[in-house]
Structure formats: structure tokens, C-alpha cells
């Protein structure tokens, strides 16, 4: 079966870039990306490519090449489903907030709704591809919904195949990951449908990198990959705390263990704790699955990865307060970076959210800079409005027990700061002149580097104290132990 018309439901961080790359690599396929969010689609269609809803290196260039030719963005969900012979479901699957499995299981209502729309509007034979990361056996739910449509005599012989094709791209490197994937995973039952999807990828991915599995292995492999990656980060962050207590340096420990080919060097950077839309959600999904099958020790094992991450974030906010003489009330703290990692405007589960909330609870005055995240997004994440100039009086600050925050678009923000807190590894922060910054900050100020992007020698003769995550050596001025 040759695919000519693709429809992708969900124009998010996964659906958008993935479909852009498919359109770019397969000029003979028409790719329609649909989304219920009108604002998001408007941004995807904006003439000014700087206004695309997602920032990803090289994405704008691809959109410029393909948009209006074989790549289209619209809210026409029903119409585009009708004409598609392959439909990707790429809607969000957040952790359930209430009901059965709340706090752990994924909320599948949008996947279910998408499947119902496919069942209602599709024509002829349609291959439905799960692109969203989903709990194991979700395909069964989708198949169930589609089956009733197949049996409906009024629908004139429609039929479906369901495949699982999880996306392994990481934000910030999405285009690179899509163009040169380590592997493409296709899980399914019908080999013809699997071949049809494989044929699309084989336009640019070597055949040996396209793996076929059964559908449940494919769903579980995606959860497992994310759980293993997140586990490495919690492991190295736990070692960072030991380094700080013992005089070791986590960068040296990472280098030493990473050269062991069985361990490998990737995902061994200690940081402020992992963020992003996937790691926490997918591990909790695995925890839920294990609990459901009565595998409580397995559930506890994976849950501890998330618990360690929460503890690590708290540890950072607590040590900031302790280093600043036990209080940050009324003290100006500059926060560099709010995105959950560099090269993305995404803040979902960013460590910056919890750390800033903790510091605000302690009464700090925070000045936040991020080159790609908007003030409005930070306001949503912190659930607090920024302080305006008119409220910025001494009296206000004195009685504002909760602390306050402001956003800055430029880096002219270090005057009278008590501390700088580095939370996202943006390249521009590597170029900061610390001699100049230290002259602007108060005496005995601190720089907290949770991303290891400052070279300690650059602060050697500078009048500020430096704390680096996982650095227990003397250069780290680590006189207090936590
Ligand atoms: C999401 C999930 O978080 C992830 O687990 C999964 O692997 C892929 O989908 P992401 O693309 O980052 O990842 O989510 P998001 O940026 O929130 O995009 C989802 C889009 O789906 C949104 O634009 C939303 O408006 C849209 N959507 C949601 C629909 O078009 N229809 C719906 O019924 C629900
Ligand atoms: C992750 C997976 O990598 C990807 O395969 C999957 O499809 C989606 O989830 P993403 O969340 O976009 O991708 O980014 P990733 O690079 O994995 O980083 C996740 C978090 O871990 C970030 O907060 C990052 O800063 C942190 N991290 C990563 C570390 O703290 N240390 C590391 O060594 C690597």
C-alpha cells in the first residue's frame, strides 16, 4: 500500500516537527497537520517564521521549504481525516489529575476522542499510527473504537490497521533526531501496514534502523527508554550530592564512569533535575502499570527515580537559602534560564518552576531571563503575576511576604543582586563576563551553577562565591555541607 495523504492530529512539540520532516523528505506525500487549538495553528501559518509556536533549531527552514506545497496546518480535523490514508495521533497525554489512577496514569481522553473522530470521518482503509507516548495496551482501546465503526453497516466497508510508532526525538535537537534517528520503531500486527509506514521512513532512514516489533513491545519500549534515561539522571544527581559531601567532583566521576563502554558517556550530566513533558509522566505511567499488575517492588523502584528528582530540586533551593545566610527575603536573585533544557521554549516540568516557587515562598525577589520563554508562560507556570514598576516600592517589598518576580529580555540585570542562579544551559550564558557581573552584585554574592557551564577559573579572582552542582572541591567554596 502506497501512502499519499497523511493527517496528523496534534500540532505540538512532537507532531509539528515530525510532520515537517516527513513532508520535507517525501515530496510526493501531502501532509496535513490538524489541531483543535486555533491560536497554535495561526502561529504555524504565520508568515514571519520567528512566530512559529515551537522553537527548534532548523525547524523554520523546513517549514519555509514545505508549507503550502505538501505541508499544511489547519483546524479542519474532520475534513482532513476524511481524505487521509494514514493518520498519526499525536495529541497530549498528561498525567491524570483526578479519578482512577490520578497522579500516575495518563489521561487518555484526547487519544480516545481522536480515535472516535477517525472512526466517524475516515473513508476506505486507514492506517492509524500512535505517535503519542502511551500506556501499554492503548492500541487495544483504539482498536476497540475503530472496530465498532468497521462493523457499522452504514459506514460502507471502512477498515483500519493500528500501529505503534513512538517518537524518540528530544526537544532542542528534534530536527537532527528526526533526520538521523538511532532507530525507528514500528509495532503492529499487519505486516502490510507496517511496510507502508516503513516505506515512508526508508526515504531517509537506513532499512536496518527500522525495527519491527509486536505492538505492545513497541508501546512499552518507549516508556522503558524514557525511564532508563531519567534513571541515569537521578543516579548522577544522587552521586552529585555525595560528591559535594566528600570532596569529589561529579564531572570527574561522570567522565571516569562514562568511558566504560558498558555505561557510555551520555546522560551523565548532573543538573537541576530533569524536566520536560515526558520523563516524569512516563515513569509514573510505568509505576501505575506495575502497581496494576501487583508488582509493588517494581513500582517502588521506578517511583524512586521521580522522588530523587523532586528531592534534588528541593535540595538546590534549600542550599541557596542556607548559603545566603539563612534567608532570601527581600534579596534579589537573578535566574538565568527557565526552559527545561537549552534550545527550546518549552517549560513543562522545568526544574526552574519548583526552584523559583520555593524561593518565592522564602520571600525572594527574582529577576528571570530566558531567551525563548515568554513572560506570560512564566506567569502561568509560577501561578503568580510579575511585579510591576508601580508596586516596586520599598514598603511593598517589606510587606510582600511571598516574594516577587520580574522578567527581563536582556542581561542587564545584575545590579545589586545577591545571587545568580544558572538553570538552563543557553549558549549566551557561556559568554557572560563574570568580572563585570561581580562588580555589579552586592558584596559576598553567590553564583549557583546547576548546569556546569561556568569555568571556575573565570571566577578565581572575582569577588563572588561559586557553587557548582556536584563539586565538593575547595574551588567550590563549599564550606557548608547539605
Ligand atoms: C504529546 C505528549 O505530551 C507526548 O506524551 C506524546 O509523546 C506526544 O504528544 P507534545 O507534542 O509535546 O507531546 O504535546 P503538545 O505540545 O501538548 O501537543 C499536543 C497537541 O494536540 C496540542 O496542540 C493540542 O491542541 C492538540 N490536541 C489535543 C488536538 O488537536 N486534539 C485533541 O483532541 C487534543
Ligand atoms: C526525552 C527523551 O530524550 C526523548 O527520547 C523522548 O522522545 C522525550 O523525552 P526531552 O525531554 O525532550 O527528551 O529532552 P532530554 O534531552 O531527554 O532532557 C530531559 C531532561 O533531562 C532535561 O531537563 C535535561 O536538562 C535533563 N538532562 C539530560 C540532565 O539533567 N542531564 C543529562 O545528562 C541529560
* Structure ligands: uridine-5'-diphosphate-xylopyranose
Biggest β-sheet: strands ordered side by side in the sheet: 3-2-1-4-5-6
Question: What is the string of SSEs from the N terminus onward?
Answer: EHEHHEHEHEHEHEHEHHHHEHEHHEEHEE
Low-confidence stretches: 478-482
**What's the end-to-end separation, in Å?**
61 Å
State Rg: 24 Å
Overall residue-averaged pLDDT value: 94
**Treating each run of at least 4 consecutive H or I residues as one helix, how many helices?**
16
**Structural class estimated from helices and strands:** alpha/beta
Biggest sheet descriptor? 6 strands, parallel
Strand content: 5-15%
Categorize the overall geometry: globular
**Total strands:** 14
State the share of residues found in helices, binned by percent.
25-40%
Task: Provide an overview of this structure.
The structure is a single chain. The chain has helices spanning 15-25, 38-44, 59-66, 77-83, 109-121, 138-151, 174-179, 191-201, 215-246, 250-258, 279-292, 296-323, 351-361, 375-382, 394-399, 434-440, and strands at 5-9, 30-34, 71-74, 86-89, 125-130, 159-164, 184-187, 210-213, 332-336, 365-369, 404-408, 419-422, 445-449, 464-468. It is of the alpha/beta class and 482 residues long. Helix 8 (191-201) links the parallel strand 7 and strand 8. Helix 9 runs parallel beside helix 12 and helix 12 crosses helix 13 (351-361). The longest helix is centred in the middle third of the chain and has 32 residues, at 215-246. It is globular. Mean pLDDT is 94; it is low at 478-482. One uridine-5'-diphosphate-xylopyranose is lined by residues 9-15, 35-37, 40, 90-93, 110, 113-114, 132-133, 277-278.
Amino acid at each position: 500500500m502506497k501512502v499519499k495523504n497523511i493527517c496528523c492530529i496534534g500540532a505540538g512539540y512532537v507532531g509539528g516537527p515530525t510532520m515537517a520532516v516527513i513532508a520535507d523528505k517525501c515530496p510526493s506525500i501531502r501532509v496535513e497537520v490538524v489541531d483543535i487549538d486555533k491560536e497554535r495553528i495561526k502561529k504555524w501559518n504565520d508568515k514571519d517564521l520567528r512566530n512559529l509556536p515551537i522553537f527548534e533549531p532548523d525547524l523554520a527552514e523546513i517549514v519555509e521549504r514545505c508549507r503550502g506545497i505538501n505541508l499544511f496546518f489547519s483546524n479542519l480535523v474532520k475534513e482532513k481525516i476524511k481524505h487521509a490514508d494514514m493518520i498519526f495521533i499525536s495529541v497530549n497525554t498528561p498525567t491524570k489529575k483526578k479519578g482512577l489512577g490520578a497522579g500516575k496514569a495518563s489521561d487518555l481522553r484526547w487519544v480516545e476522542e481522536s480515535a472516535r473522530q477517525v472512526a466517524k470521518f475516515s473513508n476506505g482503509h486507514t492506517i492509524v499510527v500512535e505517535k503519542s507516548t502511551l500506556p501499554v495496551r492503548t492500541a487495544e482501546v483504539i482498536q476497540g473504537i475503530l472496530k465498532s465503526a468497521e462493523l457499522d453497516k452504514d459506514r460502507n466497508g471502512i477498515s483500519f490497521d493500528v500501529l505503534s510508532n513512538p517518537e524518540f526525538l528530544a526537544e532542542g535537537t528534534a530536527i537532527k533526531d528526526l533526520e538521523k534517528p538511532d532507530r525507528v520503531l514500528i509495532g503492529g500486527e499487519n505486516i502490510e501496514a507496517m511496510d507502508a509506514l516503513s516505506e515512508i521512513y526508508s526515504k531517509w532512514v537506513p532499512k536496518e534502523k527500522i525495527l519491527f516489533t509486536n505492538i505492545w513491545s513497541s508501546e512499552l519500549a518507549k516508556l522503558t527508554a524514557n525511564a532508563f534515561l531519567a534513571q541515569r539522571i537521578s543516579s548522577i544527581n544522587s552521586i552529585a550530592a555525595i560528591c559535594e559531601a566528600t570532596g569529589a567532583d561529579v564531572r570527574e566521576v561522570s567522565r571516569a564512569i562514562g568511558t566504560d563502554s558498558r555505561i557510555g558517556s551520555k546522560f551523565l550530566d548532573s543538573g537541576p533535575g530533569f524536566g520536560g513533558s515526558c520523563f516524569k509522566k512516563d515513569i509514573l505511567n510505568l509505576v501505575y502499570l506495575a502497581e496494576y499488575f501487583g508488582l509493588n517492588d517494581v513500582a517502588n523502584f521506578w517511583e524512586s527515580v521521580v522522588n530523587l528528582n523532586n528531592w534534588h530540586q528541593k535540595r538546590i533551593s534549600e542550599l541557596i537559602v542556607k548559603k545566603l545566610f539563612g534567608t532570601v527575603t527581600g534579596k534579589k536573585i537573578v535566574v538565568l534560564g527557565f526552559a527545561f533544557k537549552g534550545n527550546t521554549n518549552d517549560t513543562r516540568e522545568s526544574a526552574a518552576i519548583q526552584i523559583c516557587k520555593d524561593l518565592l515562598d522564602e520571600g525572594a525577589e527574582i529577576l528571570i531571563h530566558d531567551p525563548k520563554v515568554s513572560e506570560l508562560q512564566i506567569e502561568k507556570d509560577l501561578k503568580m503575576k510579575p511585579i510591576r514598576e508601580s508596586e516596586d516600592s520599598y514598603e511593598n517589598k517589606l510587606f510582600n511576604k511571598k516574594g516577587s518576580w520580574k522578567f527581563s529580555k536582556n542581561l542587564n540585570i545584575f545590579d545589586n543582586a545577591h545571587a545568580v542562579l544558572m538553570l538552563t544551559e543557553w549558549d549566551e550564558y557561556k559568554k557572560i563576563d563574570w568580572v563585570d557581573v561581580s562588580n555589579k552584585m552586592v558584596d559576598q554574592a553567590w553564583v549557583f551553577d546547576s548546569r556546569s557551564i561556568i569555568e571556575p577559573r573565570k571566577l578565581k579572582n572575582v569577588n563572588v562565591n561559586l557553587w557548582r552542582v556536584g563539586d565538593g572541591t575547595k574551588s567550590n567554596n563549599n564550606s557548608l555541607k547539605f
